[in-house]
Amino acid sequence: MRTPKGCVYKGKKKRRARYEAFVLPDGTVSTRKIKRVSR
């Protein structure tokens, strides 16, 4: 999954885990799965 720089992407893949992609100040894109459901 590629995310453009400076863009925060939060996606939900049906009923699977949530993917949170964020860009670090170094310009690196990191993605992690979230099992918590927060609204």
Task: Summarize the structure in words.
- The chain has one domain (1-34).
- It is elongated and about 25 Å long.
- The protein has a 3-stranded antiparallel β-sheet with strand order 1-2-3, with no helix packed on it.
- A hairpin with a 5-residue loop joins strand 2 (18-23) and strand 3 (29-34).
- The model has no long low-confidence stretch (mean pLDDT 60).
- The chain is an all-beta fold.
- It is built from no helices and 3 strands.
- 0% of the residues lie in helices and 41% in strands.
Mean pLDDT: 60
Distance between the termini: 24 Å
Number of strands: 3
How many distinct domains? 1
The main sheet comes to: 3 strands, antiparallel
Q: What is the H/E string?
A: EEE
Q: So how many helices?
A: 0
Give the overall silhouette.
elongated
Structural class: mainly beta
Low-confidence stretches: none
Rg computed from alpha carbons, rounded to a whole number of angstroms = 11 Å
Q: Roughly what percent helix?
A: under 10%
